[in-house]
Design a protein that fits this description.
9 helices; 0% strand; single chain; 82% helix; binds protoporphyrin IX containing FE
């Protein structure tokens, strides 16, 4: 009984926070996706540089890779929410419609699968330690698929993204929930930093190994 009473207010405030995040409807959802995508683009550009010189930049590669996990989860959560609302026949999301056919049938599933592949095999590399064998092969293979899907994704959305991000800037943004969207992205980055700092020591065996002869 006591547990029920204490858990009720907590559940209610979690529900209130969720409702606030969802205010702004489809427009708010789209803006959150674009803002998160912009942050991803910046971090992924740094990750791309580390790939060009993976040995000397391996600690940065692992750090940024781990930092990226929560923002990637946020992008997938925002777009996953749109997906679920659309198939649950939510009036507003049905009115907005799905993404264009090529994106929803080919690019998005490929991008989601390859993203999960790159990050899962990256974390697995830290767990199994230097060498990597098949897992390193899968990490590289999923990266190649990811790069193709990601390239198309960015080309498709790059023109729309700046206006969506700018729309939340300033007071007259017209769509509720801007502060919560900024908060969600900031929280994802803080959690990413905590994960990166906490898990970076797991890369030590890789760093020692990559410093020596193969
Ligand atoms: C790992 C990186 C990323 C993943 C996994 C990802 C995933 C997705 C998915 C699954 C969708 C919904 C399907 C679709 O519309 O095609 C989507 C939509 C979108 N993404 Fe990304 N994305 C990523 C990076 C980016 C970047 C870098 C940008 C910014 C250029 C971006 C901007 C957008 C925009 C504007 C939409 C459309 C939102 C809407 O119409 O409601 N994304 N993303
Ligand atoms: C959880 C995050 C990640 C971790 C822990 C991680 C870890 C690693 C490790 C340990 C290696 C092997 C380096 C070596 O052979 O010395 C590697 C290689 C590589 N990673 Fe990651 N990675 C992560 C995320 C990513 C992401 C997000 C991308 C790209 C989107 C990526 C692309 C690559 C590529 C292409 C290589 C091969 C580079 C080469 O051999 O020239 N990784 N990663």
């Amino acid at each position: 009984m006591a547990v029920e009473e204490t858990s009720r207010p907590a559940a209610r405030s979690a529900a209130v926070r969720t409702v606030r995040l969802l205010r702004g409807g489809t427009e708010g959802n789209e803006r959150l996706t674009a803002l998160t995508g912009t942050v991803l683009l910046g971090l992924l550009a740094v990750e791309g540089v580390t790939i060009l010189a993976i040995r000397p930049l391996l600690s940065l590669h692992v750090f940024i890779g781990l930092l990226l996990i929560p923002p990637v989860v946020l992008e997938l959560a925002a777009t996953g929410y749109r997906f679920v609302r659309y198939y649950a026949r939510d009036v507003e999301y049905v009115r907005k419609g799905p993404p264009v056919l090529l994106m929803r049938m080919l690019v998005a599933p490929g991008l989601v699968a390859a993203t999960l592949g790159v990050f899962a095999t990256g974390v697995a590399l830290l767990v199994v330690g230097p060498g990597g064998g098949v897992i390193l092969g899968l990490h590289k293979a999923s990266f190649v698929v990811w790069l193709v899907a990601f390239g198309i994704h960015v080309l498709a959305y790059a023109l729309r993204t700046p206006a969506l991000v700018a729309a939340d800037w300033g007071r007259a943004n017209g769509t509720a929930g801007a502060a919560v969207r900024y908060g969600a992205v900031a929280l994802a980055l803080v959690v990413g930093l905590i994960i990166a700092v906490a898990a970076l020591p797991a890369a030590h065996p890789w760093l020692q190994w990559s410093g020596g002869d193969r």
